[in-house]
Amino acid sequence: MQISPDDYLTFVDRALDGMMGIIEQMGDLANRSPDLSGANSPYAILVHCVGVCHYWIGTLIAGRHTDRDRPAEFQATGSAAALRAAVNDLKRQIRLDLRNVTPDVDGEQGLAAMPNAEYTPLPDRTHWTQGAVLMHTYEELAQHHGQMQLTRDILVQGRRQI
User: Fold this and answer.
1) How far is CA 50 from the centre of its chain?
2) What is the mean pLDDT of the chain?
3) Domains and CATH numbers, the chain
């Protein structure tokens, strides 16, 4: 099974644009976390997604060095404009990084680096392909997009009750 870079990017862009839309819609409220144990703000969730993409696609597939502080991603706050710039930069960079994927090999080629064992979603998996990394990256974006939608709803509803 093959998926073209354009098809892949269509869905990645939809997830990123949907999350960015939530941030822009919420304004400063996007920097708040719901009053739930372990909850993250929408802003932090999207910063985390930017880090996910840079690491999983940029480092593991493209072999690009990324300075990622994963714990700090969940503490991030800032402006929608700054995050929009980061998302736009990410989208440009992913397009460059995907030049390292060879579509005629069905994504079975190896990686430039193996995933950090501490953060791998499949700890028993010893062989990762580019295709698996791309699927995992999209999985992260899709699940966090849904998480942001729920987080937005909780925060907006809470604000209405004040």
Assistant:
1) 5
2) 90
3) 5-161 (1.20.120.450)
